From TrEMBL:
GO molecular function: double-stranded RNA binding; protein kinase binding; protein kinase inhibitor activity
Compositional bias ranges of the Basic and acidic residues kind: 32-48, 119-129
GO cellular component: nucleolus
Signal peptide coordinates: none
Species for this entry: Nothobranchius korthausae
Superkingdom, natural source: Eukaryota
Region listing for Disordered, in residue ranges: 1-83, 119-194
Similarity annotation: Belongs to the PRKRIP1 family.
Protein's UniProt name: PRKR interacting protein 1 (IL11 inducible)
Keywords: mRNA processing, mRNA splicing, Spliceosome
Acidic residues composition-biased segments: 157-166, 173-185
Residue stretches of biased makeup (Basic residues): 130-148
């Protein structure tokens, strides 16, 4: 029999695209972490290429109730056997619509409560910060007043010291003058005695 040859599976084939992508080995992710790692590696191979970010899916909305109902079901006799299935389907659809509206209303209530809670938290936080800010300001003012009082006290002491030192100097000068007068009258030693 003829030998089987595989076409176009060799990496250096002559009929391949020039400058094409390299053949990469097939890697099977065994864990979700491996799968995530492989996705990241594929994205990071070409960082210039934009990453696909899927849009958020549209929320399911029930079909609006009909404005005009043609087949009004009454309690008259003679309804066919297929009418019950039509009625059951309409009833199921209406129950779905009412459940959806209830869920939307509950979600809106929760959102409203959440926003009120956030507002209350903001107000409480603002009150706490204002209280602390006032406390800090009071302490600052107290420190400034204490510092000013201390400076004034030291200034007064310095003035008193300078005044007392001037008075002391005057007194010393007066004492020296008095002593100088005393020295002139009474000699401290006598000369020429034998």
């Amino acid at each position: 029999m003829a030998a089987h040859t595989q076409k176009n599976n060799k990496p250096g084939k002559p009929g391949g695209k020039p400058g094409g992508k390299e053949a990469q080995p097939l890697v099977i992710a065994k864990t979700p972490a491996d799968e995530q790692r492989l996705k990241l590696e594929r994205l990071m191979r070409n960082p210039d290429k934009p990453a696909p970010i899927p849009d958020r899916g549209k929320e399911w909305n029930p079909r609006a109730p009909p404005e005009f109902v043609r087949d009004v079901m009454g309690s008259s006799a003679g309804a066919g056997s297929g009418e019950f299935h039509v009625y059951r389907h309409l009833r199921r659809r209406e129950y779905q619509r009412q459940d959806f509206l209830d869920k939307v209303a509950a979600k809106q209530d929760k959102d409203k409560e959440y926003l009120q809670k956030v507002e209350l938290n903001k107000k409480a936080a603002e009150e706490r910060t204002a209280k602390r800010r006032n406390k800090r300001e009071k302490l600052k003012q107290k420190k400034l007043l204490a510092k000013k009082a201390k400076q004034e006290k030291t200034q007064q002491e310095a003035e008193e010291n300078s005044e007392s030192s001037e008075e002391d100097k005057k007194e010393e000068k007066e004492e020296e003058e008095e002593e100088g007068d005393d020295d002139a009258e009474v000699p401290s030693f006598i000369m020429g005695r034998k």
